[in-house]
Specification:
Layout lengths: L2 H11 L4 H10 L2 H19 L2 E4 L1 E6 L25 H14 L3 E6 L7 H14 L4 E5 L5 H10 L3 E3 L7 H7 L6 H13 L3 E8 L6 H14 L3 E6 L16 H14 L9 H6 L3 H7 L4 E2 L6 H4 L15 H14 L3 E3 L9
Bound molecules: S-adenosylmethionine.
Length: 348
């Protein structure tokens, strides 16, 4: 079967075999990309219209106990600049974001031992008390079931935890021995079972990744059916073991966005900051390929450059208000509009 027929098959049957995905991901042309993007965008428009949801990203800590080989804030990086926001600082970011119109706050950070279950629950409760109509998304890494349950009871609505790669072998090439894919998957299952709108996802072009690995990612996403999928290109960081590795392909990332939209029609799909970092029109092209979420940065300007997961990250110098204006203009330039609605998952 040709790539175009496989894309049609994916649209009709909502899944392909591993062999078919592998073939598609290693043989597609620019024409196939455009074909998939058109279908993906039509699907997204039919469910979410022309609205692109904005989420306010607050990077709460650059401390991390983990040592992922790809990440700029890994524990072993002695050059990383470490900071953590106080509860008051996080609340100030929410206040600024709320004044700008945001209805979702995403608290993301390294796995920082300071952020105990109680600390996280206190901050979630306070945000929900002050802004009851807003959604709180957490992205704080792997935790025991009971801790996720406490976050949920405190009022958290969503949780982002990329699975990074669905292949055991590939996972072990990206992480130290004590980090396990089985544990990452356990977390994702727990999060879904607790009723979080859950986000999984992977880095495209991560070192040693094959088309077969990406096919496994697609099948894992098909089985998990997460409400959100975060897909961005791998970008090397100079202070990591992967400093000399090639960055992920822009085209392949965009193509995967389309395939994920076609496979999981209702999914909330960000055009990521990493995509905007490797191409000046990255987020616009991502939206035109099926993405419907953008996450402008609400972190205090003083810490932006310290949350450096990879080189050249964009928007580290922009005021929050400026980022919103610029995203708004970018979306209008391609016939879309930013939406400050909560933007919950519309599937079942
Ligand atoms: N600690 C939380 C976790 O593990 O999910 C959230 C923070 S973690 C830094 C957020 C995401 O950044 C990771 O899931 C990973 O996919 C992405 N990331 C880290 N290093 C990256 C790199 N060099 N290039 C692209 N994305 C990267």
């Amino acid at each position: 079967m040709k790539c175009k027929e496989l894309i049609e098959k994916l649209n009709n049957e909502k899944v392909l075999t591993k062999e078919e995905f592998t073939f598609l991901l290693s043989s597609y042309t620019k024409e196939d990309m455009d074909f998939a993007a058109k279908i993906a965008r039509e699907i997204c428009d039919s469910i979410y219209g022309k609205d692109i949801y904005l989420r306010g990203l607050i990077e709460v800590s650059s401390y991390c106990k983990n040592d992922c080989y790809y990440c700029g804030i890994r524990a072993s990086n002695k050059n990383a600049q470490r900071y953590r926001l106080t509860n008051d600082e996080i609340l100030e970011c929410c206040e600024e974001g709320y004044a700008l119109g945001f209805k979702t706050f995403v608290l993301q950070g390294g796995e920082d031992m300071h952020f105990t279950c109680d600390v996280v629950c206190d901050i979630v409760r306070e945000i929900k008390k002050r802004y009851p109509e807003c959604a709180v998304t957490l992205s704080l890494g792997e935790k025991p079931y009971e801790e996720y349950k406490a976050y949920k009871q405190a009022g958290a609505d969503r949780y982002l935890l990329r699975h990074e790669t669905a292949s055991e072998k590939h996972y072990s090439l990206l992480h130290p021995e004590k980090m396990l894919l089985s544990e990452r998957k356990r977390c994702l299952r727990d999060l879904k079972s607790l009723g979080f709108q859950t986000g999984a996802g992977m880095m495209v072009g991560a070192p040693y990744q094959t088309a077969e690995n990406l096919a496994e990612d697609m099948l894992y996403l098909h089985d998990l059916k997460p409400q959100m999928v975060g897909i961005g290109p791998f970008i090397p960081h100079k202070d990591t073991p992967f400093r000399d590795m090639q960055r992920g392909s822009f085209e392949l990332t965009v193509f995967l966005l389309s395939l994920v939209r076609i496979m999981l029609p209702d999914v909330l799909l960000p055009a990521t900051t990493a995509l905007g970092t490797i191409h000046p029109k990255g987020r616009e092209i991502g939206v035109l390929a099926g993405a419907n979420v953008i996450m402008p940065n609400l972190s205090p300007l003083s810490v932006r450059k310290k949350y450096m997961l990879y080189e050249g990250k964009i928007c580290t110098g922009d005021e929050s208000a400026q980022s919103v204006i610029s995203v708004k203009e970018k979306m209008e330039s391609i016939g879309y509009r930013v939406s400050f609605a909560r933007g919950d998952y519309k599937g079942i």
